[in-house]
Amino acid sequence: MEPPGYNCFVDRDKMDAAVQDLGPKELSCAELQELKQLARQGYWARSYALRGKVYQRLIRDIPCRTVTPDASVYSDIVGKIVGKPSSSGLPLPEFVDNTQVPSYCLNARGQDAVRKILLCIANQFPDVSFCPALPAVVALLLHYSADEAQCFENACRILACNDPSRRLLDQSFLAFESSCMTFGDLVNKYCQAAHKLMVAVSEDVLQVYADWQRWLFGELPLGHLARVFDVFLVEGYKVLYRVALAILKFFHKARAGQPLGSDSVKQDIRAFVRDIAKTVSPEKLLEKAFAIRLFSRKEIQLLQMANEKALKQKGITVKQKSVSLSKRQFVHLAVHAENFHSEIVSVKEMRDIWSWVPERFALCQPLLLFSSLQHGYSLTRFYFQCEGHEPTVLLLKTTQKEVCGAYLSTDWSERNQFGGKVGFFGTGECFVFRLQPEVQRYEWVVIKHPELTRPVSSEATATPSSLGRPTSSDPADRLSPFLATRHFNLPSKTESMFMAGGTDCLIVGGGGGQALYIDGDLNRGRTGHCDTFNNQPLCSENFLIAAVEAWGFQDPDTQ
Prior knowledge:
Layout: H1 32-41, H2 48-60, H3 71-82, H4 108-124, H5 134-143, H6 148-159, H7 173-190, H8 192-201, H9 205-209, H10 212-219, H11 222-235, H12 238-255, H13 265-274, H14 282-291, H15 297-313, H16 331-334, H17 347-354, H18 359-362, E1 365-371, H19 372-375, H20 379-386, E2 392-398, E3 403-408, E4 424-425, E5 431-436, E6 440-443, H21 445-448, E7 454-455, E8 488-489, E9 499-501, E10 505-508, E11 516-519, E12 524-526, E13 542-554
Antiparallel strand pairs: 1-13, 2-3, 2-13, 3-5, 4-9, 5-6, 7-8, 9-10, 10-11, 11-12, 12-13
């Protein structure tokens, strides 16, 4: 059987000798759902020629700006921009952020072509300011392009996508950095064992997660990346999160019990991804990725918007040449030992809590809002001290020295909308935890059991352009309605009883019981299983309170 018909940019000797055009030669389906299944199954992965045809078709169908550079533009400008046959001596555009062109079995001519295409893209897309994934994307596309001009056109169409509901590549530092934060949030929720390890060994866990796109577009072997890209062109950006989460799960499994150093964990993950073919096949990687029951695309978009807004508020919109990534404090330094004092938790315990909170708030320092030892044992005073702050962390110590608490996403002032009655509010970002005698965190039940619900239909929800706008029930300064219960069709209200407060009691978690119930004198309380968090009792089921604290989040720049 004849080997695949590689183009002139490919080093045939470096390609897998086992690759043959064994698969089908044509693709006849047009339905998106069928394309999804075929992409995930690797329908065109065994045919080099068919993959090229499918890429051309999928990229041609991307909705783009009215004026999008095409192959003829490349032919017109390449000579003027490059100016000589070889571009190897020319610097790459700044937007690649010093990313090297991955070889991906390209010969010298192919690697030179990638550089020329990137330089021409920079000429045509002055608005693209930060896109370190692009060299890998262009290098991959070149495999399946007839010539440089066609590869240029395909890359331009990916960059010029103007469908607001379809996100492809990050093109600014703000988008890239918020994606890193979003990935960190997803790791926190879906890879808790790996996240715990990263927090333990990393001075700055976001520095580790900021590498996530490099795992895919740079370190992942060509065969694995091509399979990921097959699905990416059909399903979009969410696939990248899935695969990166799967990589982290495989890394954690492979390195469980082995020592990791804070100065080497990034390099260790990169090395693992480079050699992933030794232990994880492309099929196994995608199988793991799609076994993760992620939030809906809409919810991830809301989280991304919330992270972008947090970065904008802190003035982090472009990469500072003298600063690595952002102004974000290290997780281990976000709680400064010399500035932190609590009657309930140690610095280490507060750092553990800080590692659980959403990334956009991990940028902040803890701010003591209420202490029963300072402000007295009064629920009224508790509300007064906490109102105007969102989110907050509630900490509780019993007379038996048990310690538990809750991360509460919403301003306590929202309790006033119920006209004096006790009503539940909050979002699915809330969680409850215990620290003593052992550490345990319980998140919204829907996160681990998405089968309990399905997203509200698009007809009943806001359009992408209106996502994040405050509704009549949203405070004007709400970062986003991420995981708001109105986005989900829940079988009953018991799965969304996050927080409630009245003059006589404070409640966290409901349905079949309360995760926490505290009386109006901050004297007695009880805890039990509740449907919202599917938790075990956080301490003795009936307890006496020794101390209560509430902590807010303060931007270090305002201290």
